[in-house]
Amino acid sequence: MNVLVVNAGSSSLKYQLFDTANGSVVAKGLCERIGIDGAITHKQLASGKEYSAQLPMPNHTAAMTYVVEALTNADHGCVKSMDEIEAVGHRIVHGGAYFSESMLLNKDVLAKLELCRDLAPLHTGAHIQGIEGCLAVMPNTPQVLVFDTAFHQTMPKEAYTYAIPTELYEKYAIRRYGFHGTSHSYVSAEMTKILGKVEGTKIVTCHLGNGSSISAVKDGKVLDTSMGFTPLAGVEMGTRCGDIDPAIVPFLMDKLNMNTTQINDYLNKKCGFLGVSGVSSDCRDLEAAIAAGNENAKLAMDLLGYQIKKYIGSYAAAMGGLDAIVFTAGIGENTASIRKRALDGLEFLGVEYDADVNEKTFGRNGVTELSTKNSKVKVYMIPTNEELVIASDTEAIVKASK
Ligand code: ADP
After folding, report:
1. Tell me, what's the pLDDT at 355?
2. Does residue 66 surpass a pLDDT of 90?
């Protein structure tokens, strides 16, 4: 089945056309600066043909019109007409407590998505515009919503509840939701295939990218996860602070004379690697700075390694054991020094890994075992593929609806 995967942000719209028969990407592209001026870059994978243009994109519907033109273009396109595309799968960041699985779009689903607007205003608004853009150019094509939060809906109450008055959960839906669900779902499922079973497995999945989250996956279901009400919580990230004492927030607002929007922006965009190192939000820049003797860059990386280690230990305790640790996403797949920082010292849990293999392991190598034969806990690098999960879910739901 040809499935178009759409990831709509506030001023961007990324797309990939999948042939689910073999999981291959047929074409992909990006519309940027939507609502400002507009630009599209598009690539047809088989021929390698590329196309880019500056085009007026006042909204996501206009952007989708250009996506349709690019996909059906006689030179760099890949389908004769949009009828050849049988379904659209949308990445949705926040499904609140309404969605525990991917859903076929209908009026009721769209109304529930509207109710999630409060939880992630910028993202949800952009997703709804992306959906409307697709409805405008492909009105008869089924659309499926795939939620970053859905995989985490299996968390028990004690894992998702914050120690604040219960009525705040009822009134404002304040609870832990968790994010990167498609990635945690994909790599944990791959890991259970390696372990040869789902029931009885205890896996910690470490999705480490610009945004990072760690999950405890027991019997194939999420028991706990590091991100919370929003994707600001958990471990240190590129520009996000992760977990800090909540009292720091009003303290900083006072000291730096910030309002709520400003403090939210500050904690999301000026902290993490960038804030601690003063150099960059990118791991590769930090490694270069460390090589040049920058102590704060080293502190930024040490901090993340230490935090990952603490999560692995606490999740092993929560699950009552540990069978496997999985590293994925930009840093998890490619940054050996972070994996080393996280794994060193976990021997007491039965973790033993091959330092040489770790040093030589990158995402482009594909699934790689880092643990030694004697290790009680398997350690793997598994490249994530969130778009493929969205395409597969979309295909399954559309087929089931026919
Ligand atoms: P996002 O959360 O934006 O999807 P990624 O998963 O692409 O982020 O991760 C980006 C992080 O991965 C950056 O800190 C980057 O330095 C790090 N990284 C290290 N090596 C590589 C690499 N070879 N390719 C991509 N990212 C890498």
Report:
1. 98
2. yes
> For residue 341, what are the CA distances in angstroms to 202, 276, 335?
22, 17, 10
Is residue 282 flagged as an active site residue? no
- Give per-residue pLDDT as tens, 233-254: 999 999 999 999 999 999 999 9
Both tokens of 305, joined, read 């390694």
For residue range 328-351, list pLDDT tens digits in order: 999 999 999 999 999 999 999 999
Number of domains in the chain: 2
CATH number for position 20: 3.30.420.40
Residues 6+ away with beta carbon under 8 Å from 238 = 209, 210, 211, 272, 273, 274, 281, 282
Residues 231, 348: one domain? yes
From the CA of 384, how far away is ligand 1's center (Å)? 12
Write the CA distances from 304 to 212, 237, 341, integer angstroms.
10, 8, 8
* 123 within a domain of the structure (yes/no): yes
* Domain contains 162: no
232-255: buried (b, 16+ CB within 10 Å) or exposed (e) per residue?
Answer: bbbbbbbbbbbeeeeeebeebeee
**Based on the domain organization, do 210 and 318 belong to the same domain?**
yes
Tell me, in angstroms, the distance from the centre of ligand 1 to residue 229's CA. 24
> Which range of residues forms the domain containing residue 200?
195-386
User: What lines the ligand 1 site, CB under 6 Å?
Assistant: 209-211, 238, 282-284, 329-331, 334-335
**H helix or E strand, kind and range, residue 3:** strand 2-8
| Cα–Cα distance measured from residue 28 to residue 152, given in angstroms and rounded to the nearest whole number | 28
DSSP sequence for 163-183:
SS-HHHHHHH--S---S-HHH
How confident is the model at residue 122, as a pLDDT? 79
